[in-house]
Amino acid sequence: MKSVNDSGKEVTEYNNKYWLMLSEAETVAVYPQKEMQKEEMKWRQWADDWLVHLISPNVYRTTGEALASFDYIVREGKFGTFEGFFAKYVGAAAMFLISKRLKRRHNLQDDVRQDLYKAVNDWVAAIGKNRKFMGGDQPNLADLAVFGVLRVMEGLQAFDDMMANTKVKYWYRRMERATLNHEAAPPLHLPVKF
To answer: Side-chain half-sphere of 119: how many Cα atoms within 13 Å?
Structure first.
């Protein structure tokens, strides 16, 4: 569906973007409780519509953090000397400025870390104390979406601050183990029809 957003820009929305096309039997197997499917879709959308927008303002929050982030990118990306120098300094300056625009666009607090902390603590609270993951004993697509967004900060100051100042650490470490060991729910073997 095409519509016009608050800024007057035309955008395309996909109404079934978070919906899995499953038969009734498959739906019951994947989502033993009816509210699990809606909960998973809600948090996947939250990861796309809110959480992901907290990354750049937090990773490039200060000039020092922007330089450290690009130093990490250059080091891990194995850039050449000239390309690395250019990427680090020009990239850091550009992303520092862009992150300030994103902060305003998404109405973030002056201390953007507080928005990040609140978001991940809201996520952990939604999982609750009686589940290891949003999906129960195994990660579901919402767990994977949130983990993917947070993982991009690993190795940076924003990630270290988040781990030290929120309750996300234990869930995040369980997700690391689960993804390394491929512990997500077993895939459905759907018949292919032509």
So the answer is: 24
Which of 100, 112, 123, 117 is closest to 171 using CA atoms? Answer: 123
Joined tokens for residue 81: 């000397």
Q: What is the pLDDT of residues 8-65, one digit of tens each?
A: 888 776 666 655 666 677 766 666 777 888 899 899 999 998 999 999 999 989 888 9
Please indicate, yes or no, if residue 11 is contained in any of the structural domains.
Answer: no
Q: What does residue 20 show for φ and ψ, rounded to 5 degrees?
A: -95, 130
Q: What is the CATH number of the domain that holds 128?
A: 1.20.1050.10
Point out which residues pair with 11 in neighbouring strands.
3
Total residue length of the chain: 194
Q: Which of 193, 159, 185, 191 has its CA nearest to residue 37? A: 185
For residue range 103-159, list pLDDT tens digits in order: 988 888 889 999 999 999 999 999 999 999 999 999 999 999 999 999 999 999 999
Q: Provide the whole-model pTM.
A: 0.77
E strand or H helix at 10: strand 10-12
Residue 27 is assigned to a structural domain of this protein? no
Answer whether 116's CB lies under 8 Å from 146's CB: no
Query: How many domains does the structure of the chain reveal?
Result: 1
Q: Which residues contact 91 (CB under 8 A, 6 or more apart)?
A: 70, 73
